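Internal ticket - ligand job 242, adenosine-5'-triphosphate:
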Amino acid sequence: NALTNVLKIEGLKVAYGGIQAVKGIDLEVNEGELVTLIGANGAGKTTTLKAITGTLPNCKVDGHIHYLGKAIKGSHSFDLVKTKLAMVPEGRGVFTRMSIYENLLMGAYVRDDKAGIAADVDKWFSVFPRLKERAAQMAGTLSGGEQQMLAMARALMSHPKLLLLDEPSMGLSPIMVEKIFEVIRTVSAQGITILLVEQNAKLALQAAHRGYVMDSGLVTMNGDAKAMLDDPKVKAAYLGEG
Ligand code: ATP
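stdout (structure tokens):
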């Protein structure tokens, strides 16, 4: 079939000193897919994302990570920005003393197509109307949910070929969580390829095409997201049902 691999992970292992946080996992994301990686606290989800972005100093990383067909394990994260891999980390990391507008421009710093950048600011302001209303406001004055939206919009300004989202719903009110997932669906519907790490398994599987479950450093289940929502084991362990 015509599926194009954007990300392919094979046999990934990560150890922090004596602690084996990731114990040999396979995972792939195809072009245009929204794939979610779910699992309990400490399962190794964030560590997996950090392995992809090459932000695991002083760790033993084994296995293979291919991004757009190229091996990237050990690549410096700055180079990954140029290759259009964007990560929105847990805790967001917006530039609090810059305006919302300036934050968006920072997301486009590797681009030099002025007209395209302006068009993208308009595009993402229409997806994130809350940000448009507050364009001149300092990012540090935004609510947690608004900062999450800004971090996503900023990442999208880099025209990512793969967008990595680490627990975007973390610490947000239920209404804001719904809004964030609405935005994730909208972004995915634009054809952007997304790997979403989430503890909110239900919302993540409802939004995703495919899902992976991680438990104690291993992938214990994977498949079609809708099928996983109906799986009795997933229901009992991750959805608080059954
Ligand atoms: P969470 O949802 O809590 O972030 P997670 O699934 O993302 O969980 P990781 O953050 O990847 O899990 O952590 C996996 C394991 O690795 C945990 O046991 C954690 O304590 C350990 N770990 C993470 N970072 C480090 C570190 N810098 N040094 C030592 N151990 C670490």
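Auto-summary: The longest strand covers residues 5-16. Residues 16, 19, 21, 39, 41-47, 199 surround adenosine-5'-triphosphate (CB under 6 Å).
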